[in-house]
Amino acid sequence: MSKDQVTIVGAGIVGICCALSLIERGIPVRLIDRDKPGQGTSSGNAGVISPWSIIPMALPGIWKKVPGMLLSSDRPLSVKPNFWPKMIPWGMKFLSKSKESEVRNSANAMHLLCGPSVALYKKHLEGTGYESLIVDSFYVHAYKDKNKANIHALDYQIRSEKGADLELITGHEIQDVEPSLSTDYKAAVLIKGQARALTPGMITKVLTEKARSLGVEIISLDVTNINRSEEGWVIQGSDNSIFSKKVIVSAGVWSKKLLEPLGIKLPLVAERGYHMEFANPGLQINNSIMDVESKLVASSMQDGMRLAGAAEFANPDEMPDQTRKELLTNQAKVMFPNLAADHASFWMGCRPSFPDSLPVIGPIDGQKELYAAFGHSHFGLMMAPKTGEILAEYISDDPDKTDISSFSHKRFGHMSSKHSSEII
Ligand SMILES: Cc1cc2nc3c(=O)[nH]c(=O)nc-3n(C[C@H](O)[C@H](O)[C@H](O)COP(=O)(O)OP(=O)(O)OC[C@H]3O[C@@H](n4cnc5c(N)ncnc54)[C@H](O)[C@@H]3O)c2cc1C
Asked: 0.70 cut: is pTM over it?
């Protein structure tokens, strides 16, 4: 085993992209997961890949909308009763990030990660025979209330300033773009120049196989602990332990649990989301479509039409809320009145979310050769390839390293000691 081998703990889309970027620079890599690589949260998402998804979740005035979202029968936002003690401090931090200056700072940082997303996916898929898993697309932000489609609102304004091509359409123009969408939608903002994934779970499979073929060792292990020895890191699993000089933790929301014993406490929570996928929907959608009010995103994928969304704050390993099955099916029928909803599958995944919508990326202070790549919340599919590039730059000590100060874990304050209980 090479002394300089890098071991990546967690093979979601972020870990997989880190593995590809490292092996392409000639750095030997091991990729560990307790399950099949890329088949968790990274498989069930809405498939949006966009240079323009650069707006954090906390926007000015969000505090006025939260009660309505919690009480709405559409349940775009919910908190499990036993999660409220963790939710309150996280929510306070979230609300403190909603000032325009904070939004603009986060948008700049998000643009750095999302900007090259489409090009990097095309590069990763090139030569695999699966290039068609990414298709060029618009994002159709659909509104039932025409007056709410304000193309000059802060979020669209920031996108425009960064170079996005936006268009406001109304009435029958919407049906020209998306004939299956209900005529209840009276206006839509088209965000052009992006892409969507036709089955994110297939992309993770294809890229895992590519990584394997380039020499990445894929290991099945349920990691229980990561401990520092004199020489490097000991990655302990349920029935085995592995030594590595350098470690990247990219275990999604479960990264928190792996790092806490090292005294690293971060406000990372599970913002769970759901999807229903209709196998024979009887209709085709041309783009990614978001119902802006319910925050649901629909997209035609290889195995059917998927409707994904909801933000449910809960412990990550708690059972999915089965009542969302019927709710999502009804919401899908409202969006697409001709939908054939008979053969459908139900799924839940955990967005790893920080209050400022930014991930933690890069070396962890005070922990020699331990690196972070987690917390990509709503944007992990699109942010993963650039995250991988950044980790490869830092690990190979590239002289032209990207400035990653916005993604430092230190933005949440002083690294807690092993006994600190301040941060959730
Ligand atoms: C409903 C929904 C819709 C979404 N839509 C989009 C979208 O359209 N576009 C977009 O960009 N993003 C979207 N996202 C977000 C995106 O899916 C996530 O940000 C992304 O998948 C996170 O990837 P990850 O690799 O960090 O984590 P994960 O995919 O969760 O991977 C972490 C991996 O670590 C492994 N692991 C954890 N603990 C251990 C351990 N102890 N030992 C070994 N292995 C371990 C897990 O098994 C898992 O495979 C959506 C999310 C949801 C829920």
From this structure: yes
Residues with Cβ within 8 Å of 296's Cβ and at least 6 positions away in sequence, in order, are 76, 290, 307, 308, 309, 310, 328, 331, 335
Give DSSP secondary structure letters for 158-213.
Answer: HHHHTT--EEEEETHHHHHH-TTS-TT--EEEEEEEEEEES-HHHHHHHHHHHHHH
Cα of 253 vs centre of ligand 1, distance in Å, is 8
- State the Cα–Cα distance between residues 113 and 380, nearest whole angstrom: 10
Mutate to test the pocket of ligand 1, among 220, 351, 374 (most ligand atoms within 8 A of CB): 351
Look up residue 318 and give its amino acid.
E
What gap in Å lies between CA 107 and CA 111, rounded to an integer?
A: 6
pLDDT in tens, 332-390: 999 999 999 999 999 999 999 999 999 999 999 999 999 999 999 999 999 999 999 99
Q: How far is the CA of 41 from the centre of ligand 1 (A)?
A: 4
Ligand 1 centroid to 255 CA: how many Å? Answer: 11
Are 293 and 144 contacting, i.e. CB atoms less than 8 angstroms apart?
Answer: yes
11 Cα to the center of ligand 1, angstroms: 9
275 CB near ligand 1 (under 6 Å): yes
- Tell me the domains of the chain and their CATH numbers: 6-42+202-265+356-412 (3.50.50.60), 53-114+126-196+269-353 (3.30.9.10)
The answer to whether 408 and 362 are in contact (CB under 8 A) is: yes
Tell which atom from ligand 1 comes closest to the C-alpha of 35. 47
Backbone phi, psi, residue 320, to 5°: -65, 155
Containing H/E element for 24?
Answer: helix 13-24
Q: Residues 89-145: pLDDT tens digits?
A: 999 999 999 999 999 999 999 999 999 999 999 999 999 999 999 999 999 999 999
